[in-house]
Structure formats: C-alpha cells, structure tokens
Design brief:
Elements (H helix, E strand, L loop, with lengths): L4 H8 L13 H12 L10 E6 L2 H14 L41 E8 L7 H15 L3 E6 L7 H11 L5 E10 L19
Antiparallel strand pairs: 1-2, 2-4, 3-4
Helix pairs in contact: 1-4, 2-4
C-alpha cells in the first residue's frame, strides 16, 4: 500500500469522545475551516457554511436547547451498538440512544463547528465532504474531532431560526450536523473495519 502523510492522517484519525479544556487558537480554526471550504461541491455551488463556536456561554445554551428540543433515543429502525458503561459517551449509562443532553455537548470539547447547507440544494452530500476535510486536517495538526450528527437546538423550527439569526446564518439554510473539535483527553482506539472493497478487473 502506498504511504504518505495524507494517507497516514486518514488511516490514523479516530472519533474522540473526551477533550481537555485547552482552547484552540485562531490559526488552528482558520486552518481546518479553510480545508472545509476547499472540499469538492456539486457543480461548484459551494452551498455549505461552517460556524465555529468557542464562546462558553453559547455552548452552554446550545447544550440546554439540545436537551430541551432534542428527540429521545435512536432514529426509528436503528439499533445502537452494545457498549460497556465505561465506553459510553461521557461514561453515561445508556449513553447512545439515551435522552438528549445526558452527555456534555460535544463530549466537553472547547469548540463545536456547526454545519449548514442551503435547504433547497440538490447537493446535500457537500457538507459531509467538508466535514471529512475538517476531521483529517484537525488530526494532522494534533487535534481530535467527532462528528455529532443532529443537534436538538435545531429540531424545533422556531428555535432553529433564532439560533441561525444569532449565528449569522442566512435564511434558506438548514442545520446538517456538528463537529466537536479540541485536544483529545486520551487517544481514540481503532475499531475493526468491515472490508467493503471490491475491484472489478
């Protein structure tokens, strides 16, 4: 297998579910966000917006709304993996699939990046491409990340509108997902990967 620094970062990146209190620098955030906006986009429409929140009070309010408006349990038809209590997010019994807000928002990361996309865009995969760039770039400069999925603060339409106004997100956009980012409290453990490869010769 070919090896270089980019491939190394891709293969070594892990989802981090525990962070130190050390804040991120402007340079670090500028770097990962620059990598996000340079991700591919359908027809080069560039419809994604990435909002990095470091303000502790805003993060606290997001956590409160995550619990207040978030739905309970996993999505319909989705079975959460069996996990030991010590491996559950935040060490909370019942972690995955438990009530929203039982764990710290972003697993206690000092920064959460909120990802938005134009609601009427035909290219809803575009934000995910930017998120992957953020995760790989962050790992390459010594940071950890975890893609968080949905956030309860945006589950309620009226509340979502208030938050988007507060964050300076234009009308016509919707929240897609969020990313916790910061210094890992401990290294992420590699998990076995399913072999989804198939080469047609």
């Amino acid at each position: 297998m070919i090896q270089n620094e980019v491939i190394k970062a891709i293969l070594e990146r892990r989802s981090i579910r525990g962070y130190t209190d050390q804040p991120l620098t402007d340079e670090q955030l500028d770097t990962v966000l620059e990598c996000a906006v340079w991700a591919p986009s359908g027809m080069n429409q560039q419809t994604s917006i990435y909002v990095a929140v470091r303000d502790k009070e805003l993060l606290k309010q997001l956590a409160e709304d995550d619990k207040k408006f978030g739905s309970f349990g996993p999505p319909p038809g989705m079975k959460m993996p069996d996990m030991k209590p010590e491996d559950m997010p935040g060490g909370v019994p019942g972690g995955p699939g438990g009530p929203m807000g039982e764990r710290k928002l972003g697993y206690g990361a000092p920064c959460v990046i909120l990802v938005f996309n134009k609601a009427d865009s035909r290219h809803q995969i575009d934000p995910a491409l930017g998120e992957e760039n953020i995760c790989i770039a962050a790992h390459s400069i010594g940071l950890g990340t975890c893609i968080l999925g949905g956030m309860g603060a945006f589950d309620d339409e009226a509340n979502a509108k208030l938050w988007m106004e507060r964050l300076g997100v234009p009308e016509g956009y919707k929240h897609i997902t969020s990313i916790a980012i910061g210094y890992p409290a401990k290294p992420g453990d590699p998990k076995p990967r399913k072999d989804g490869r198939k080469i047609i010769k």
